[in-house]
Amino acid sequence: MARDTAEAEAGMKGIRFPAWHGKHYVTLAELLVRLGSFGLDLTWRVEFDEIVDPRCVEMERRADAGMDTLTLLSLTTPFLQLIDAEARGFAEDQLVLVLTEFDSSSWDVRAVDADCSVDEAAPRARRVGAGPAPSWPAAGRTPAGTCAHSDEI
Fold first, then answer.
1. Residues pairing with 16 in the sheet
2. Where are the domains of the chain?
3. Tens-digit pLDDT profile for residues 31-84
4. 37: buried, middle or exposed (CB in 10 Å: 19+, 13-18, 0-12)?
5. Where is this region: Disordered (predicted)?
6. 149, 130 contact by CB (below 8 A)
């Protein structure tokens, strides 16, 4: 499975955005909520370089078997600021989404396919290694099957 995961990750496209927007830290819980229905049925495995909260221990304990999105959400609310963490989302046994937090300063959101999952997760995001950030739709989610910034993914 590690080889399949590496191959899936190599084919992912993604965006990077600052973890801080003014005085607001974008939490993992916020990203999970922004994923909407795309992230709801995923199984998550989370790894940390630094344990910053007792909830991190529980997430690591569940890492091998994985946890559903609602369990992960319950462990990351009301507020959990991570340092060097990665959450991998699996659909069945296939890696489809990776959320990586770097030193509490930025997030990378990468997905296997170029649907709205990446675009919906990140406000003021830009493609990893790309130019300026696209605008974030003020109304939130775009209608199913459409993507406001599909050319940016």
1. 108, 126
2. 2-129
3. 999 888 888 999 999 988 877 788 888 888 888 889 999 999 988 887 888 888
4. exposed
5. 123-153
6. no
d(CA 6, CA 20): 29
User: pLDDT per residue over 38-53, tens digit each?
Assistant: 889 999 999 888 777 8
Closest residue by Cα to residue 100 from 30, 33, 15: 15
Dig out the tokens for 106 from the structure. 């930025």
3-state secondary structure of 41: coil
Q: What does the chain come to in residues?
A: 153
pLDDT grade, residue 114 (50/70/90)? Answer: low
